[in-house]
Structures are given as structure tokens and as C-alpha cells.
Design a protein that fits this description.
A hairpin with a 6-residue loop joins strand 9 and strand 10 (199-207). Strands 5, 6, 7, 8, 9, 10, 11, 12, 13, 14, 15, 16 and 17 form a 13-stranded antiparallel β-sheet that branches. A 4-stranded antiparallel β-sheet has the order 1-2-3-4, with no helix packed on it. Strands 18-19 form a two-stranded antiparallel sheet. Helix content is 43%, strand content 24%. The protein is an alpha+beta fold and 626 residues long. Among the domains are: 226-319 and 330-353, no CATH class; 365-594, no CATH class. The longest helix is centred in the middle third of the chain and has 27 residues, at 397-423. The N and C termini lie far apart (131 Å).
């Protein structure tokens, strides 16, 4: 190759490089091309959903340069009067107040995600260290929030608002999303945020659509799919507290199953609100008037993926045939704070899983106000739990005192019972009859210590629901526990160990140990000869329950541990300093001298034991004759 040829090739390459640089698209042109691609994808998706079109039919060339009239002509089969809103570019619009930042999407005119500024999501990294991340709700790309608009001239159910591109307008903290229709009509969604609240005003407008909408039944359907993210440390418990709640206008609130997939047919019920709620956060849609029934459902997952649960809501929004109509709602996206939800009214606090019936009432109107009062001057929630425990123990001490007096009576009578058993050592039936007779004579009862414990059980069951449902304990530190709303971890153990879920909770272990100590102290003077297994069961029971409490809220296990410490202290002080054994013995002797009248239950029990003794004697006589 000669010199002239080489020079020519180099010049050609330089010219080609310059030409490529000159004709390269600008960033604005690249953005425009991306918008074309977004529009193509949206239109092709809509085309595939149409039962009459089997293949996507839109290309960049077809979209380029089309005005409203050509768009209407080309896409009217799929979008009818909203064909001009079928093409566009998806954009985000962000509005925020002091509590949350809301990102809206122009495609569908809906919420893309909500960031709660005062709350965080905590995950564990590869080294098992906790990492704090922003907390988002309604953020999953699989979510759908769409209105099914029955449009004249469009086959099937109609079009979905999620396939339309809305024109945004922002004025202060108000975002207006409008999808224009032919003839000047439009479908509008309007959101307004206010400082100091997680409650957004959310209003629909149907302007000039009375000749466009083909809704003969006077309503349109809202379809809402919400894939819940795993937010809390104990995802299994969080999943069991997540479901769809709904409130009929003229009835109490209700919900789908929390532990399995479930569907509730609401038919034509008038609904005040529907809510997708998880352990500590809720997304709720509240009508100013009422929705017209529908269907709600939950779908559970195996727990392996990133999704906690899928919630589905299909409800009907009433829309007539007027030229100008609206439907006003509120959108709550925020924490399950009792006072905020109570301010909304309409039983919104029911989304907090305090429990129903008496247990829920105790939590809402007794335990919660007491704890809030204590938190007013005690900043550390763990110390507040300690004081709450002390308060509850003082409240139920009269019952505890009666239980300890009953135990002391049994302790005083133990020598007499031992003498009686030695006398009838070969006749167990006679021992039972004489024991019941002695209890009646002295005015003692082995069940006297059970009744006070039974009366305290509603408080225990209420607290079992209170701690893991109260957002006040979420991510609150106390001693070694980093989050009182979930289990504390003192050390890691192998996952294959059953029931322990790969960790040990120190509060749960301390509860089990103090339960064994308390049982030992109380049982030293009790007689287990009739039921010897009960003596050992009281020690085995805490070990059996350790697997359950090991993964429960550390706020509850801390309460149970403190409760045991107070129980042991109360028992030692009461029995050794407040109950006089000699005076109690004198009282029992005085009871023995008084004339006795058997109560109905005691008399029947004695008669049953005597009859059993008689039958046993007859059987022995028959054996002797043989």
C-alpha cells in the first residue's frame, strides 16, 4: 500500500469520526426517543389486553408526528374517547409535608411510593449487623391501583386508568392528575397533603363524561393490588398480623384471615373504608360517603421471597350520568398510631391488632392509657414497662394476697393431712374422702389459689397482644434489646435446632428460669401425692413455652420476667411478714369447731367419692369369694 492510499484512508476515518460526532443525538433527543419507547410499550400492553388484538401493532414510526385527532382515529378501538391519553411519557411528581414524601406517577395518575420520614426499616447485613434504611409504603412495582372505566365503543370491561397518561398540575401541596377525553371532558384525580398528618385528601372528578361512560349500573370498579414489603425483623409474625380490613357503614369492621389466603364477598354492602394493614403500618382508602360493596382478598406466600403478602381490593365507586360528578375520599398512608387513627373515626383503630372482645377492650382503654401516662414522664420504654409491671402487680395484689393465704392454709394443714394419709396408707379412696372432709372442716380449699390466677388471665392475654401491636415499642432500645416490639437476640444458634429460629432471647430465658424458681418456692409445702406428675410438670412447662416466647416481642418477655421478680418478692414478703402462721392456725382450729353445712358442690363431690369407695370395696369382696 503506497503513501497516498494510507493518507486517503486516514482522512476518510477522520471525516467519519467528525460526521458521527455532528449527527449524534443530543440528550434532549435521546429523552424524546425514550418517551416514544415508553408510549409504544404502554400501547402494546393495552393492545395485548384487548380480546380483539392478538399482536402489538404500534411502532415508533406510527407514533411520530401524530396529533390528537390522528391518535383518536388510530387508538379509538382500544381507548375510545381517551385515545389522546393513551400515548405519553411516564414522569414522577414529588410532593411532601413534614411527615412524608409522596411520589406520584403520571402513568395512571397514582401513588408510586410513600416515604415515612419519622420511621425507618432495619435490616441485617451479611455480618448480622443492623442497618437502617428509609421506610417506603406502596412502593412495589407490581402494585396496581386502577379504575376500570366502561367506555362507549370499547369492548370488554372498558379501559384501565393505569394505561392512561395523566397531565400533572402542582399547586403547593396539591397534585392534580388529569386524563383528557375527546370533546373537552376529562377524568381527574386530585391529591392534597397537609402538614402534621398522614391523611391525604383524594378526590375524583368526572367532567363531561356522561356521554362517554357506559356505566349503566351507576358505578365504576376500583382495582387495588398491594404487595406488602417485609418491614419488621420477625417477618413471620408480621405476616400473621397483615390483612385487609373493611368497615361496613352500618356494621362493625371486619377483616380477611391473617394466617391464610382468604376472600370476602361484600356484595352490595355500603363500605366506609378499606385498608391494607400490616403489623405497624396501614394504607387505607376512606370514602366521604360510601363505596358500593365489592370483594377483598389476601394471598399468602411461602416466606422465601421479598414480598410479605398480597392484598387485593375490588370496590365500586358510585358514578351517575351527570355532566359533572365527583367522589371524595381520603387516603391514609402511615403508622398505626392509635391517637391518629382514632381522630379519623369510623373505628379505624380496629386495624391495630389489640384483639377483639374483652382483651381488645382491656388493651385499648386500660393498658394503653396507663402506659401512655407513664411514657409522659419516663422516656425509656423499658423502664416504663418495669413501672407498668409494678402498677399491675399492685392492682391485682388483693387477689394475690388471697391466693397466698390459701397456700398458707394448705401449708398449716399439711401435718394433719400427712397423719391422715398414714392412717389410710393402703386405701387411696379413703384418703381422698378424708382429705375433702378435712378441707371442709377447716375452711380451706386447694382451689383457693387457682381462682385469683384465673381472674388475672384476661390481663395476661391482653398484654400478649399489646406489646407486639403497639408501635410505641417499635425499634425502642432497652438493655440488650434493640427493638421491644420483636425478639431480642443474645446469641445465634444453628437454624436446625427446632422452635428456636436460629437465636436465643435472653429475656425469654430469664423468664423461664424465674418461673422455675417461683414454682419451686411455692410447691415446697404442697402435697402432690395424689397427682405426682404435677410436681414435675410445673418445671417442664417453662421449658416447653421457651420455644414460643423465644421469638416473641421482647417487651412482653421483659414484662413476664419483671412480673416473676415481683411475684417472688411479693410471695416472700407476704408469707414471712404479713401472714401470721400461728393466727392462721388458730383460725383454722376455730373453723373446725363451727357447725358445717356442705355446699352443693362439696356434698356431691363427697358422695361421689364415697360411692366410688363403696364400689371398690364390693369389687374386692367379689375377688375374695372367687
Amino acid at each position: 500500500m503506497d503513501r497516498s492510499t494510507i493518507v486517503g484512508l486516514v482522512l476518510i476515518l477522520l471525516l467519519f469520526a467528525v460526521w458521527q460526532t455532528v449527527i449524534a443525538p443530543s440528550p434532549e433527543e435521546l429523552e424524546a426517543q425514550q418517551r416514544y419507547q415508553d408510549s409504544i410499550a404502554a400501547l402494546n400492553e393495552a393492545a395485548l389486553q384487548s380480546p380483539e388484538v392478538a399482536e402489538p401493532t404500534f411502532t415508533p414510526t406510527e407514533l411520530e408526528g401524530l396529533n390528537d385527532s390522528t391518535l383518536q382515529a388510530r387508538f379509538s378501538d382500544q381507548f375510545g374517547a381517551f385515545a389522546t391519553a393513551a400515548a405519553g411519557a411516564e414522569e414522577d411528581v414529588v410532593v411532601e409535608n413534614d411527615l412524608m414524601k409522596v411520589t406520584f406517577s403520571t402513568r395512571g395518575g397514582t401513588i408510586r411510593q410513600v416515604e415515612l420520614k419519622e420511621y425507618a426499616k432495619i435490616i441485617e447485613d451479611e455480618e448480622k449487623k443492623e442497618v437502617k434504611l428509609p421506610l417506603y409504603l406502596l412502593e412495589d412495582d407490581k402494585n396496581r391501583f386502577e379504575y376500570v372505566l366502561p367506555i362507549a365503543g370499547v369492548s370488554g370491561e372498558g379501559i384501565r386508568s393505569s394505561d392512561l397518561y395523566f397531565t400533572p398540575t402542582v399547586e403547593g401541596n396539591t397534585v392534580t392528575m388529569r386524563a383528557n377525553a375527546v370533546g373537552g371532558g376529562y377524568f381527574e384525580q386530585k391529591y392534597t397533603l397537609t402538614d402534621g398528618t398522614y391523611l391525604m385528601d383524594y378526590d375524583l372528578r368526572f367532567e363531561g363524561l356522561n356521554r362517554v361512560l357506559a356505566n349503566q349500573d351507576g358505578q365504576i370498579r376500583l382495582h387495588w393490588e398491594n404487595y406488602l414489603d417485609k418491614i419488621e425483623k420477625n417477618a413471620q409474625y408480621e405476616a400473621n398480623q397483615s390483612t385487609v380490613y373493611f368497615k361496613p357503614v352500618e356494621d362493625d369492621s371486619d377483616y380477611c384471615s391473617c394466617t391464610s389466603s382468604d376472600t370476602e364477598e361484600l356484595e352490595e354492602q355500603r363500605l366506609k373504608w378499606v385498608a391494607g394493614s400490616q403489623q405497624f403500618f396501614t394504607s387505607a382508602l376512606i370514602a366521604d360517603e360510601a363505596f358500593r360493596g365489592g370483594e377483598v382478598a389476601t394471598e399468602t406466600f411461602d416466606g422465601e421471597g421479598s414480598d410479605l403478602k398480597k392484598l387485593v381490593v375490588d370496590i365500586n365507586v358510585p358514578v351517575g350520568n351527570s355532566a359533572s360528578e365527583g367522589f371524595n375520599m381520603s387516603f391514609y398512608v402511615g403508622p398505626n398510631e392509635f391517637d391518629r387513627l382514632a381522630a379519623i373515626g369510623h373505628d379505624m383503630t380496629d386495624v391495630i391488632s389489640f384483639g377483639r372482645s374483652i382483651f381488645g377492650a382491656i388493651n385499648r382503654w386500660i393498658i394503653r392509657p396507663i402506659f401512655n401516662f407513664l411514657s409522659g414522664f419516663i422516656s425509656n420504654k423499658g423502664i416504663a414497662i418495669l413501672v407498668l409491671t409494678l402498677f399491675v402487680k399492685i392492682l391485682v395484689y388483693p387477689l394475690t394476697y388471697k391466693m397466698l393465704v390459701s397456700q398458707s392454709k394448705m401449708q398449716v394443714l399439711k401435718p394433719e393431712i400427712e397423719k391422715m394419709k398414714a392412717k389410710h396408707k393402703d386405701d387411696s379412696q379413703a384418703q381422698q374422702v378424708e382429705t375433702m372432709k378435712m378441707y371442709q372442716e377447716y375452711g380451706a380449699s386447694p382451689l383457693g389459689g387457682c381462682l385469683p390466677m384465673f381472674l388475672q388471665m384476661p390481663i395476661w392475654f391482653a398484654l400478649y397482644r399489646f406489646f407486639p401491636a403497639s408501635i410505641e415499642f417499635r425499634q425502642e432500645n432497652f438493655l440488650w434489646a434493640t427493638d421491644l416490639s420483636t425478639y431480642d437476640t443474645i446469641t445465634r444458634i444453628p437454624e436446625w435446632i427446632p422452635f428456636m429460629q436460629g437465636h436465643l432471647s435472653l429475656f425469654a430465658i430469664l423468664w423461664a428460669l424465674t418461673t422455675v424458681i417461683y414454682a419451686y418456692y411455692n410447691s415446697r409445702h404442697m402435697d402432690y401425692s395424689a397427682q405426682p406428675m404435677m410436681k414435675y410438670f410445673q418445671y417442664v412447662m417453662p421449658l416447653l413455652f421457651l420455644g414460643f416466647f423465644n421469638s416473641f416481642a421482647s417487651g412482653l418477655t421483659a414484662y413476664l420476667f419483671f412480673s416473676n421478680l415481683f411475684n417472688i418478692s411479693q410471695t416472700i414478703i407476704t408469707k414471712n411478714f404479713l401472714i401470721d402462721q400461728e393466727k392462721l392456725r388458730e383460725k383454722l382450729e376455730a373453723n373446725k369447731k363451727k357447725p358445717k353445712k356442705s355446699s352443693g358442690f362439696t356434698a356431691r363431690l363427697q358422695e361421689a367419692l364415697k360411692e366410688q369407695q363403696r364400689q371398690q370395696a364390693q369389687q374386692q369382696q367379689k375377688k375374695g369369694k372367687k
